[in-house]
Write a structure and sequence with these properties.
- The chain is an alpha+beta fold.
- Among the domains are: about 90 residues, no CATH class; about 100 residues, no CATH class; about 150 residues, Gyrase A, domain 2 (2-Layer Sandwich).
- Helices cover about 50% and strands about 10% of the residues.
- The protein has 22 helices and seven strands.
- The strands form two sheets. It has a four-stranded antiparallel beta sheet with strand order 4-5-7-6. Strands 1-3-2 form a three-stranded antiparallel beta sheet.
- The longest helix has 26 residues.
- The radius of gyration is 27 Å and the shape is globular.
- The chain starts with 8 loop residues before the first helix and ends with a helix.
- About 35% of the residues are buried.
- The mean pLDDT is about 90.
- The structure holds flavin-adenine dinucleotide (FAD).
- Flavin-adenine dinucleotide binds next to β2 and α19.
Length: about 525
């Protein structure tokens, strides 16, 4: 019997658990291994059948496919290994002949990376397309809790064997640890609980502020945890890049990631470290890096205050944005589009009520190059923006560091300063003996680093509107404000439409309003449950 135009009752029963519906043209896939989902999608390009029919004909009813084993219920470890092997065979059978590289984007995986240094986390998060990371926050989590061995959590690889490394890192953590309680108490005194504010909200906001003030003490070798969700193709490239990295920790992570991803999406990461593609590619990346290092000029940089410089912009940007905005609404070539900029831009931005209503694509026709010098903590936050081109220089101590003004006000700046200056001395010795790359591990993230962003105006709107909200960390807020001011100086009319950039100065509990909103949400949920 047919339950709908397409499937018999038996077929519908077989398919039901794999799709969110069997009778509508839009449906989601569920309860299927990644490799099967990838293989199914890849068939769209070579068959007139619907996806549900492909699953039935080519997998479920095809004993040779190994589907039963692959998609079966909970499996033992041995079964898993069999399933993985079959997934490989299955993928080969289905895709050989008509798969291309983009097929590897059709399946994804979640990977957790724990106890990686901040430096390694930055390398993992450097991918811009196809990977979404989330990392342990220095604002919500104390970083001085010891590990299982009772020691502070920072990277201790054999490559870092040097008599100055551990004492310097330990001293930074000890200062952080010693300051957490007095700084929190001082913040609570400065920002007493307000009427109507819950204990939870006040305590969270004040603790977050204290941890924000102290994060600069953490060395770049501090261990963090992160989760990555990404597609197979992005992971393949990430593994190859990590294998080429200058830090041994990152090279080890390439091996670890490859091993674990091979257990869940083997077919998609097979080339990442193989002898034909992956290894030669990694060797080439490393070789070019070394060769480039011998070509680049080096000097003796001096300590500097944070700065955001607009290095390049397009004086003709406004005309290009207007032209691009008119283009899809016209039947004439790009060159023949022209309009009154004020009228066109007013129309384009009419009714934009909040920053989540995205700025239009036409803004991507205006490009800016920023060179930024700010502390590594701020870099670490802003580095996570992906719709731009960016790169950084090695983290060192020559460009100086930031002593958080909030800490100085509380009279607790002295301890912070002596700890980071002692670490700078250790850094110089590590740099001399182990080289600049490894010496980065001991540098507290209060130290400045130089990087560039080449971004279009649409991303500038996104980044500056998001990163200037009052709950943001003051250090990255300042960078985002400066980026915006530089754009405003050269393109005042275009910048004027970024209505949700907050240029205000604050001396407040950044998380206070957010925590209050969270209380309201919790109360609303409570009411719903009751
Ligand atoms: C107040 C605050 C607190 C934060 N706390 C944490 C934290 O505790 N831990 C942490 O790890 N991070 C934290 N972040 C960082 C945050 O998760 C983002 O990584 C970061 O803000 C980059 O923003 P984005 O993804 O919106 O922007 P971009 O990467 O610049 O991208 C621009 C826009 O493009 C789109 N886009 C880009 N890439 C993708 C993609 N792969 N998939 C879908 N859409 C995409 C999105 O619409 C995105 O908004 C925090 C950020 C803020 C502002």
């Amino acid at each position: 019997m047919r339950v709908n135009a397409q499937f018999t009752e038996a077929e519908a029963e077989a398919l039901g658990r794999y799709f969110t519906n069997l009778d509508r043209p839009v449906f989601a896939l569920r309860n299927l291994p990644e490799v099967v989902k990838g293989a199914l999608f890849s068939r769209y390009s070579r068959t007139e059948k619907s996806l549900r029919r492909v699953l039935l004909d080519e997998f479920i009813n095809e004993p040779e496919s190994g589907f039963e084993r692959l998609a079966g219920g909970p499996a033992s470890t041995d079964d898993d290994m069999v399933a993985v092997r079959r997934a490989e065979e299955f993928y080969e059978r289905v895709l050989v002949g008509y798969g291309d590289d983009s097929v590897a984007e059709l399946a994804g995986a979640h990977v957790a990376v724990e106890e990686a240094s901040i430096l390694a986390a930055k390398a993992l998060e450097d991918s811009r397309i196809g990977i979404s990371p989330l990392e342990k926050s220095t604002r919500y989590v104390r970083f001085d809790r010891p590990g299982r061995d009772g020691r502070y959590l920072y990277h201790r690889g054999l490559e870092l064997r040097h008599s100055d490394y551990e004492p310097a890192a330990d001293a930074l953590f000890a200062t952080y640890s010693r300051l957490v309680e007095p700084v929190t108490s001082a913040i609570r005194e400065k920002f007493p609980q307000e009427e109507g504010e819950s204990d939870r909200a006040w305590k969270s906001a004040t603790r977050a502020k204290a941890l924000d003030l102290l994060r600069g003490l953490l060395p770049a070798g501090t261990l963090t945890n992160l989760g990555l969700f990404g597609n197979g193709r992005a992971f393949e490239y990430l593994i190859t890049k990590m294998a080429a990295h200058e830090l041994p920790e990152c090279r080890q992570l390439a091996t670890d990631l490859h091993r674990e991803l091979s257990l869940v999406i083997p077919a998609f990461v097979r080339r990442a470290l193989d002898e034909k593609y992956g290894r030669p590619s990694a060797e080439r990346i490393a070789g070019v890096r070394d060769a480039m290092a011998s070509l680049a000029r080096r000097g003796e940089p001096a300590a500097t205050t944070p700065a955001v410089r607009l290095v390049e912009f397009d004086p003709d940007a406004e005309r290009k944005v207007v032209q691009a905005a008119l283009f899809p609404n016209s039947n004439l070539p790009l060159g023949e589009q022209a309009g009154d900029p004020g009228t066109v831009l007013d129309t384009l931005f009419a009714g934009r009520a909040n920053r989540r209503q995205r700025a239009p694509r036409a803004l991507e026709h205006a490009q800016y190059l920023f060179e930024i010098t700010a502390n590594f903590g701020a870099y670490r936050d802003l580095h996570r923006h992906r719709m731009l081109t960016q790169d950084r220089q090695s983290l060192g101590t020559a460009l100086g560091y930031d002593l958080p003004p909030g800490l100085e006000e509380l009279g607790l700046g002295g301890d912070f300063a002596s700890a980071v200056e002692a670490a700078a001395t250790a850094h110089d010795r590590l740099e001399r003996d182990l080289g600049a790359a490894l010496a980065q591990y001991v540098v507290p993230i209060a130290f400045h680093v130089r990087w560039y962003f080449r971004a279009n105006l649409r991303e500038v709107f996104h980044l500056c509107e998001l990163r200037t909200t009052p709950q943001g960390h003051p250090e990255y807020r300042w960078v985002a404000q400066q980026m915006f001011l530089r754009v405003q100086e050269v393109h005042p009319r275009l910048a004027g439409y970024a209505r949700f950039v907050d240029l205000g100065e604050r001396d407040e509990l950044e998380r206070r309003a957010s925590e209050r909103r969270m209380d309201e949400k919790l109360q609303a949920l409570d009411r719903k449950v009751r």
